[in-house]
Amino acid sequence: MSEESAKEHPVLWWVGWIVLTILSFFVSCYFWTGFIAKHVGPMEQNGVPILWVAAVFGTWMVLLVPLIVVMYNKVDRSYEDARNRRETEKQKKRASQRGLLASDVPVSRRLLPKSIQKKLKKLPRTLRQGQLVALKFRDGSRLENVFVLAHEEIVGLYGREDFPFDAQDVVDAELLDPAKTQPIEAEKWLRFED
After folding, report:
1. Among 12, 16, 110, 194, which is most exposed with the fewest C-beta within 10 angstroms?
2. What are the structural domain ranges in the chain?
């Protein structure tokens, strides 16, 4: 069965695999039944049934090894294909949002200085996974509606289309109340991901 048809008909692939597994058992039975009857003796003879069981199941296990390898590769490929599909769908979903993705901004530029991280750790979370803050920079400028994840990494900017600074230039941070600032329009968030 070709790889393309296996992708199109996974149920048929599994049925085929099960049929081959069962057939390999019957091939083993057929071979050893005739061989043992001809060279060892009838089943009524002492020890022959045990020899037959050992020979049949031993041969069947040997025949199953390539089938198991094929099955493992197929399952592994299926999981990889599913992961790739999920990743593609995730990227399409992100691309469909008007908010820009700036995945090319390295984490090192988005990590806040240790002093700011310590300050934020002492403050409560304003959002479920992080804090909505206003940042103050060395040059005196201020940027509001910055989403900081785990007290340390900038993962979103509201109302921006670029990342024009380095987080190491931040000299202060203060919590904002999301209910007052209302950064609720998803398409206005500039998101950063690894």
Report:
1. 194
2. 3-96, 107-191
